[in-house]
Amino acid sequence: MPNERPSALLLLGPTGSGKTPLGQFLKRRGLAGRRCVHFDFGENLRQVVARNEPDAIISAEDIAFLRRVLQTGVLLEDDQFPLAARILRSFLVRHAPKDEPWIVLNGLPRHAGQALAVAEILDVQRVVCLRCSADTVSARIRADAGGDRRGRIDDDLEIVRRKLNIFMERTQPLLDFYRRGGVRVTMVDVAAATTADAMWEILENDMRAPCAF
What predicted TM-score, i.e. pTM, was given to this entire model? Predict the structure, then answer.
């Protein structure tokens, strides 16, 4: 039976590494001749909280919970994933990937439990990890290197530090999770001034290179 799950490319990297600018660039340019649709989970959460309008998908209790998530930088755990799944499925319905684009995942999944749940919705076929140090992250956030930090309510220094620790402990192990599953992982080194188009060039070349895990 053919795989009916849309194909996904997962962006991993600590906060400030450039995932959102790269996702937006992929949406504009595509990858290896294929259209890309960018699902920025964090931005979706911020929009839900900013609207503060419960609907058939998101309740008032959900909004209050998501506001706490943004204020503390914590991850959604397995028992909270149904909320993330509703947001993701709503996004997929609205963007109707009829021409089979890459669904570029940014901010979800963040740990192995979420990865297993996402696998029921999307087929993650590629993983791209933006690799940079804590000092580089700080420099990029201070300079707004990606042009995506304005108006963020989750860039408080303490929250950023907490996010970096969570990334190292919970999210970085996803690389081994996907490698064990035979998913190709591309590492992209990011400096303080690395731009989204420079990252895109690396990915474009990698997509055309022979597969080597």
Answer: 0.83
